[in-house]
Amino acid sequence: MRLDPVTLEIIGNKLGALTEEMCLTLQRTSRSLYVKETADFACALAGPDGTFTAYPRGIGVSGFVGLNVRTAVERAGPLSPGDVLITNDPYRSGGLATHLTDIQLIEPYFHDGEIIGYGWAFIHCSDIGGRVPSSLSPTNDEIFQEGLQIPPVRLVRGGERVPEVAALLAANSRTPDANEGDLRAMLAALRTGRERLAAVVAAHGADRVRAAHADLVEYSAGKAAAALAGLRDGGYRFVDLLDDDAVSPVPVRISVTAHLAGGALHLDWTGTDPQVAAALNIATHGRAHAWITTRVLALICTLDPEIPLNGGIIRPITVTAPQGSVVNATAPAAVGIRHATASRVNDALGGALGQAAREVLPAASSGLVVPVVVAEQHASGQNVQVLEPMVGGTGARYDADGVDGRDSGISNLSNNPVETVETEIGVRVLRYALRPDSGGPGRWRGGTGLELSFEVRSDDARLLARGLERLLFRPWGVAGGRSGAPAELVVNEGTPEERRFGKIDMLGLRRGDIVTLRTSGAGGYGDPFDRAVEEVLADVRRGVVSLEAARRDYGVAITVTADGPAADEAETDRLRAARPPADPAAEVGPERAAWDAVFDIDAVDRLVAALFRLPIPRRHARRVAVYTTVLAVLPEGFPRTPAAPDEVAAARRALAAEIDRLTAETAGETAG
C-alpha cells in the first residue's frame, strides 16, 4: 500500500510527536545528571525492518537517526508481547550500541499478534564497571577493560523484570542506584511509545501504519538524494589527524574520499590508519554508520530543513571502510572514546565535502567533546558525575561567523547548570565562559572555545577528561582563514604546583586543587584582514578578541576611551596596507604544517597500504615502531618544536626506508 501525501504527512507527524513524548518522559523521570541535564539520551520508533522511521527533532541526541535495531532483535530470538531487550555491546548489536556506557532498550510493539514497530531508547549511564570510574578511559586497549558487556538479552520478559539480569547489572556498576533509575525512565518512555502508537493504529488502521513505516523512509531517502544532487559531482579527498593514540605520541590518520554522483554519495575511508590499541576505535561493521555519516546528515538537513528525520536520510550513502581500521574496528578493540575519532571524522568529511560546496560547509569545528568527570568516594559509595560536557565552537562559513562555545557536530548535548553541578559534585565552579582569542581569525571568525575552571572541595577526588583532543593539531581554517587555538588542560595554573597535561587517563586531585580546561577554537573563513572593522570592534567589546589580537590578527588598531573601545582609523589603514603575505601554513597551524612536511600524503598512503597487508593484531605495534624510528631523527617535541631543513630531509629518507622495508616484508602477507 502506498499512502497518499496528506495521510502520510498526518501519520508522520503523529509518529514524530510520539518520539518527542517518549524523550520527555525519559528526561523528566531519569536519575543521573548526564541524562536529565546534559540530555545524553534519545528515543525513536523503528519499523518492522529495524530502520528508524520516526525520530525526535528537538530533544535528545540527534545523530543516531541512522542506527538500526535489526541485528540486536535477531540475536535475541523471537520476541513476545511484554518483552524488552537490553544491550550495550557494539559488536553483538551490529553497531546499535557504540560504547558500553550507552545502554540500549528495545521493545517490540504488537498489534493483533504481529510486530508493527519497535520502540527504542538509550541513555549514557554513569558507570558500567570496568577499570576506571565512569568506565571510559582512552588508554583501555580492549573492550573487556571498559565494563560489563551485555549482549542483546531480555531485561523484561512478558511484562516482568528478569531479576537475574537486574542483579547482574547492579553488581557491575559503581552507580547502581542511578543506573536503575535511568532504566526505569527508559521503560517508562517505551511504555509511552507503545500507548501512543496504539492510538495511531486505532485512528488510522494497522495497514496504513505499516505502509507509513516504508513510505516515510522512502520519502526521506528521495529528498536526501535530491539535496546531494545539488552538489558538484566528483571525487574529493581530505586527511585529518587525531593528536595521538593515547598510548603513544603517534597521531592517528583519518582519510576520506567523497565520491558524489547524481545524488549518490560514496565515502571511501581507505588510507585511514589501522585500529589502535586504545579506546579511539569505532565499530561500524563496514556500514554507513552514524559515527561516520553525521556530518552528511547535518549537510542534508541544512540543504533541506524540511526533510523528515528517519533512517531514509542515509540511504543514498554507501561506504568503504577497511576492516580493522579505526573506523571499522574488529573485536575486542576498545571503543569507549569513539566520539573523539568521530569528531575528527566529522572534520575530515567537512574538508572533503567542502570542496564540492565551498559556500555551504564551514571550516573545522573545535573538534572535541570532553565530558569532564569527577569521581568521589563517599561513605555510602562512589559518586561519579559528568561535571560538564565541554565542547568548543563551530567553524566559520561563507558569510557567517562560527557559533561561540557551542558545537553540535556529533551531538547536541546541553551544558549542566552550575548550581546543579555544585549541588551534586564536591566542586566549586570558578569560571565557565567563552575563551578569548581562541576562534580562528578570518573574514568570518571561527567560534570560540570554552574555559572551565573549578576548585576541588573533597579529598581524594579523581578527574577523567575523556575525549581530549586538538591539543596539538589545531582546527583548520578555509580560504585564508586561520586555525583556532589549541586546547589546554592545567592544574593549579600560575602557582609553584602548576601542572600541564595532554590526554589523561585518571588524574588524582586533592582538596583545593584548581583544574582549568580550555577547549580549542574553531577555524576561520577568509582573510582576517578583510573582516569589517566594526565586526572586530564588536568582538573586542564582547571580550572574545583582545586588543592585541585585533591588531595582530586583523590589522585593526583599537584604543580604549572613556566611552569604551574605539577604532583608530588612521592606524588601522596603515596596518592593513602592510598586511602580511598569505601563509598556507596559517590555515592548518604550524604543527600540522611541520608534520605534513615530513609525513606527506603519498608516503603515508604507501605506509598504510603496507600495514593493512599485516594481520590485524600486528598492525598497531608495527605502525608505532615505524613512526618512532622516524621521529627519533627529529627534534624532541616535534612538531611543536620546528625541524631544520636538513632534519626534515633526513626524516623523509628514514620514512621512505621504513616504508620500503615494510613493503618488502608484507609483499607475501595476507591481512586478516
TrEMBL record:
It comes from the Bacteria. Residues 4-528 form the Hydantoinase B/oxoprolinase domain. Coiled coil: none annotated. InterPro entries: Hydantoinase_B, Oxoprolinase-like. This is Hydantoinase B/oxoprolinase family protein. The lineage of its organism: Bacteria, Bacillati, Actinomycetota, Actinomycetes, Streptosporangiales.
